[in-house]
Amino acid sequence: MLGDTASQSILEVSLREVETPSSKLTRFGSDRPLKLDSGATLGPWQIAYETYGTLNAGKTNAVLICHALTGDQYVASTNPITGKPGWWNKMVGPGCPIDTNHYFVICANVLCGCLGTTGPANVNSTTGQPYGLTMPVVTIRDMVRAQAQLIDYLGIETLFMVAGGSMGGMQVLQWAASYPERVFAAVPIAAGARHSSQNIAFHEVGRQAIMADPDWNGGNYIAKGTRPTKGLAVARMAAHITYMSDESLHQKFGRNLQDRDNLTFGFDADFQIESYLRHQGMTFVDRFDANSYLYVTRAMDYFDLAAEFGGTLANAFKQTATRFCVMSFTSDWLFPTSESKAVVKALNAAAANVSFVEVETDRGHDAFLLDVPEMFSTIRGFVTGAAHARGIPAPGGAD
Amino acid sequence: MNLSPKQYDASGVRGDHRVVASLVPEGARVLDIGSEDGALLQLLSQNRNVDGRGVELSQQGVNSCVARGLSVIQGDADTDLTDYPDDAFDVVILSQTLQATRDPKGVMQQLLRIGNQVIVSIPNFAFWRNRVQLLFKGRMPVTKYLPYEWYDTPNIHFCSLKDFVTLCDELDAKVEKAVALSGQGAHIKFAAPWWFWNIAAEQAVFLLRR
C-alpha cells in the first residue's frame, strides 16, 4: 500500500495530467468543435495521444489502438502517474505482434478519460471551472469521432488497422461501421456490439457507489476540495470481479487467509481475495477521476451498434471491405464468446472478410491484457496476412 | 477428415487439393468449408490469388489457420451456412466433408445458394475395393483412404458417385466437370462412362453450377 506522501504526489501528478499530459496533445478550438450524439457541441477541446514507430511515406502503416474503460494512451510506454510499463507492451512494441519497427501506432486517451483528453475533470474555458457534471454525456461513437478528428489532423486517410479489447473493441466495431473506407483491418477483442443488461447492472452498482460517497459532492468535488475515494474504490472492486473468472480467483486466492492463521470474527480483510480487491480499489483512486468513471461507463452502457442501423447488426457492415479478426476468451463472462459470435454472424451476413478465434484460458475478461501466447500468435498471423494484402512489408519471423 | 499421408505429393500438396485448385478461377472470391489446417486456402491464395475465407469446425484448426494469416472462422456446415447472403462467393468449396454432415442435401442447397460455382469432393463408397470387402468379407469397408471402423467413423452419410450425381439432378445443379481420383489423390486421366468411374474411382471432385 502507498504511504500518504506517495499517494499525495501521485494525486498531484494525476491532476496535472488532466490538463497538460506528458504525452502528445492536440487542441481543437471552438472553430473545430466535436458534435456529440446527445446533440451537445464540445469546443474548444483537446485530445492526448501517444505514437510509436514511424509513419511511412505512403501513410499506409498507421495502426490505431483503442483502450478500455480505465486504460490510457500509454499502450507501450511508461504511465506517468503509476510509473508502470505500457498496458499492452507485449502486444505493441519492437518485435511484438503489432511491431512498432514496421507500423506507426497511435493510441489516444478516450473522450472523458482523465489523462489529457477533454473530460469532466478538465476546465471549461467559458466558466473557468472544471466541467464536472456539466460535461455532456458522451457515447462510444463520440469517442470514435474524436479519434477520427485526430487521424484527420495527423493527415492519415486510411488506418491500416484499428485494434482494441473490451471497450476498445467496441470502438473498433464503431470505427468499422462509421468509417468503413478508413479501416483496412479491424481487431475487436473480448468485446461485443452492445453492452448487455448484466454489464449495465454492474456499471450501475459502480456509479451508485461513487454517487453515494458524501465526498462526491454532486460531482462538484474538485471545486469543493474533496475526493470520493471510498465510492470510487468500491466501484473498482465490483468491476474488478467481473474481469476475472471463478476459476482464476479460486486458483489465485482460494479461501486463503491474509497474513493470519485464523479467522478474526470481525470485518477486517481476513481473506486474501478481500485484501487483493481493497488494494485494487485503493490504487485505482489515485490514477482515475470519479466523474470520468461515471461518463465512460455510461458511454459503454449506451453502446448498441445494431440500434444505429435499424436494429440489424449486419447493416452496420454492409459492403464492408475491412478485414476483421474477432477474438474472445473461453472464461470471459463479461463479454462471453456468444457476444463475439453475434458479431461474426452479422459479418457473415454481410459476406465480410472475417476471422474468429476463441482462445482457451481461465483468466477471464482480463486475458486480453495478459500474457496469453495464443492471442499473440493469432494477432501476429492476422497482422502479417493483412499487411500482405495491404502491400506493406510485414516483419518476418514468428512467435 | 483424417487422410493418410500417402495422399500428399512431393511438394506437400494433397492430390485432391491440387485438382480443386485447378478448377478455381484466378482471383475468385472463395469460401472453403472444412478448412482443417488451412492447406487448401493457402494453396489457393498463393497459386490462384483468391480472396479466400474459411469455415472450420475445430477451434484448434481455426486458430492455426488465423495464425497463418488466413481468414477463417469456427463454424458448422450443417448450421452456419444460412448466415451468408445469396451469391456471396464466386466459388464455394466443400472438401471431403459432405459425408460427415447431418443433412447433406440441406448443405448442398446452401452451397448452391451462396456460391456461383460449387466444388465438392467426396469419397466414393461404391469403389471396387469397398464392394469387395462388403461382398466377400461381409464387413464394413476399411481402407487406407477411409481408415475408420464403423463405430468411430465421422462419415455418417456415405454415397456413391452415382448417388451424388442423382442428388445434383434433384437439386437442379449442373455438373460442369467431374474429376475421378485414386485414393492417393492422383487424377485418373482417361475417358470412361459413369458406371466405370462409380467402380474405379476411390474419390471424385465435382464442379457444379446452379
Task: Provide an overview of this structure.
The complex is a heterodimer of chains A (399) and B (210). Chain A has 399 residues and is an alpha/beta fold. Chain A has two domains: 16-194 and 313-390, Alpha/Beta hydrolase fold, catalytic domain (Rossmann fold), CATH 3.40.50; 200-297, Rna Polymerase Sigma Factor, Chain: A. Chain A has helices spanning 4-19, 140-153, 167-178, 197-212, 221-224, 229-242, 246-252, 272-287, 290-302, 305-308, 337-349, 373-390; strands spanning 24-28, 34-35, 41-42, 45-52, 62-66, 92-93, 98-99, 104-108, 123-124, 129-130, 159-165, 183-189, 323-329, 353-359. The relative contact order of chain A is 0.14. The mean pLDDT of chain A is 95. Chain B is of the alpha/beta class and 210 residues long. Chain B has a single domain (5-124, 156-209), classed as Vaccinia Virus protein VP39 (Rossmann fold). Chain B is built from seven helices and seven strands. Chain B has helices spanning 15-23, 39-48, 59-67, 104-114, 128-137, 161-170, 194-200; strands at residues 29-33, 51-56, 71-74, 89-95, 115-123, 174-181, 203-209. Residues 1-6 of chain B have low confidence and may be disordered. The A-B interface holds A 323, 325-326, 344-345, 348-351, 353-360, 374, 377-378, 380-382, 384-386, 388 and B 51, 53, 59, 62-63, 65-74, 80, 83-85, 88-89.
The topology string of helices and strands of chain A comes to HEEEEEEEEEEHEHEHHHHHHHEHEH
Principal-axes geometry of chain A comes out as globular
**CATH fold annotation of chain B:** Rossmann fold
- The CATH H-level homologous superfamily of the largest domain in chain A: Alpha/Beta hydrolase fold, catalytic domain
The total count of strands of chain B amounts to 7
The largest beta-sheet of chain A arranges its strands as: 1-4-8-5-11-12-13-14
Helicity level of chain B? 25-40%
* Main beta-sheet annotation of chain B: 7 strands, mixed
For the record, the count of structural domains of chain A works out to 2
H and E order of chain B: HEHEHEEHEHHEHE
Per the CATH scheme, the topology name of the largest domain in chain A is Rossmann fold
- The CATH architecture of chain B is 3-Layer(aba) Sandwich
Mean pLDDT of chain B: 88
What's the assembly state of these chains?
heterodimer
CATH superfamily of chain B: Vaccinia Virus protein VP39
Straight-line distance between termini of chain B: 27 Å
pLDDT < 50 stretches of chain B:
1-6
Please tell me what the overall shape of chain B is.
globular
Task: Enumerate the strands of the largest sheet of chain B in spatial order, edge to edge or round the barrel.
Answer: 3-2-1-4-5-7-6
Q: Helices and strands of chain B: which structural class?
A: alpha/beta
